[in-house]
């Protein structure tokens, strides 16, 4: 990956969902290096426009890829799995800035085996405006991988 130069016109990092899981996430889960295109960042720490987005000439315009930690929605249900905390509270001031809302969810299928290797969730960031949610321009795709599926990666 690092053999490319900015002058290499037409070369972009545009992986499929299956490639993201098999070629990048699986390496990350094993503690191996997985290239320069996907960085570790808590994308739920700030509003999307305040994040330090990577500036890489090989990424498509307005496209960024991150590994982010999963936060449980409830302390009582830690390890139970389904609900993730996606609310942005800002700089430790407790003010609700908004949250990521799920639009749809789909399975990611391994083309070789036909097995489900993950799920993709399409999210939209919404802001709070006097207790009402206002749909924002920010969209994101999240590919969570169940712990049971990581053994085969």
UniProtKB/TrEMBL annotation:
Residues of the NAC domain: 7-153
GO CC annotations on file: nucleus
GO molecular function, one term: DNA binding
A Pfam family matched in the record: NAM
Organism domain of life: Eukaryota
Keywords annotated in UniProt: DNA-binding, Nucleus, Transcription, Transcription regulation
Localization in the cell: Nucleus
PANTHER family linked to this entry: NAC DOMAIN-CONTAINING PROTEIN 82-RELATED
Protein name per UniProt: NAC domain-containing protein 6
Organism: Cardamine amara subsp. amara
């Amino acid at each position: 990956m690092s053999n490319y130069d900015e002058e290499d016109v037409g070369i972009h990092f545009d992986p499929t969902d299956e490639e993201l899981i098999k070629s990048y996430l699986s390496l990350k889960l094993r503690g191996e290096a997985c290239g320069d295109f996907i960085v570790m960042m808590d994308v739920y720490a700030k509003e999307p426009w305040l994040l330090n987005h990577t500036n890489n000439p090989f990424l498509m315009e307005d496209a960024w890829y991150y590994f982010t930690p999963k936060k449980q929605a409830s302390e009582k249900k830690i390890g139970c799995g389904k609900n993730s905390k996606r609310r942005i509270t800002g700089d430790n001031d407790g003010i609700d800035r908004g949250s990521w809302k799920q639009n749809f969810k789909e399975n990611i299928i391994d083309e070789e085996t036909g097995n489900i290797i993950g799920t993709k969730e399409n999210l939209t960031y919404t802001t709070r405006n006097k207790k009402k949610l206002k749909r924002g321009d920010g969209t994101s795709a999240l590919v969570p991988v169940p712990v049971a599926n990581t053994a085969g990666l």
